[in-house]
Design goal:
The chain is an all-alpha fold. Helix content is 80%, strand content 0%. The N and C termini lie far apart (54 Å).
């Protein structure tokens, strides 16, 4: 019974109230937010990629489902934090659907499209509303920017354009040429440096998120989004190494 009460108090804290709770309860809640943010960055990538390529309008329509579900959860006190997070995720899903569904052949448009909801996120942060979702979106966008930077530094942009314009049966030589550049000392060095930046940013956000024994959940959401970018990029790196 005491554990249930402690858990409920932790959720109430996540929704903006200020009860007196133990450090253990609040840290536990923050870890769930971190895990959910990491999940929403890493797992949907592999689900949305084939969907948006073959059914781009369906992927775009699913954005409405995320917004509806996020709004429903937001309207209920004990699930408000999850609605907040899901609303932030809907912004990332919308941008991914728009870019990969109809603009994927032009790499220069990737980051601007991914940043489509940036003004809304910054407005929400300024008003101190929807902080968890807004910071999750910023963390996801930051990870995307770092990944795109790697493509520019290693000169993979021409390969990107070619891969998006040819049939899958003709993509293997282009893919192998890109892998050759990734495996150079410059490619490996850039990957290590940018991964270190992501790691440092994510860990710093976690440390700041533990302020005064009461976690700032939006910082844990940001950290989860940033650190999971390393996981996603690492999986692609391993795929390149195995090719």
């Amino acid at each position: 019974m005491a554990k249930t009460a402690s858990w409920v108090e932790g959720i109430i804290l996540a929704n903006g109230a200020e009860p007196v709770v133990s450090r253990k309860a609040t840290i536990s809640q923050a870890r769930w937010v971190f895990a959910a943010a990491a999940f929403l960055v890493s797992v949907p990538v592999f689900a949305q990629a084939p969907l948006v390529r073959h059914l781009p309008l369906a992927s775009l329509a699913i954005t409405g489902v995320w917004i509806w579900l996020g709004s429903v959860l937001w309207s209920r006190p004990y699930t408000q934090v999850w609605g907040d997070l899901l609303l932030g995720f809907s912004g990332s899903w919308l941008a991914g659907s728009l870019y990969w569904g109809g603009l994927r052949w032009e790499p220069l448009l990737h980051l601007p499209v991914e940043a489509l909801c940036l003004p809304l996120a910054l407005w929400s942060i300024r008003r101190r509303q929807w902080l968890v979702g807004s910071w999750f979106y910023l963390g996801s966008l930051f990870g995307t920017a770092i990944t795109d930077l790697y493509f520019y530094l290693v000169d993979l942009i021409p390969h990107w354009r070619k891969l998006m314009q040819v049939e899958s049966t003709l993509a293997l030589p282009i893919f192998q040429s890109a892998i050759a550049q990734i495996k150079t000392p410059w490619g490996i060095g850039c990957a290590a440096l940018l991964a270190a930046i992501l790691l440092a940013t994510g860990v710093l956000s976690l440390r700041l998120g533990k302020g005064s024994g009461t976690p700032y959940l939006h910082r844990w959401a940001f950290s989860g989004a940033v650190l999971s970018t390393i996981l996603v990029d690492g999986l692609f790196w391993l795929a390149a190494e195995a090719a």
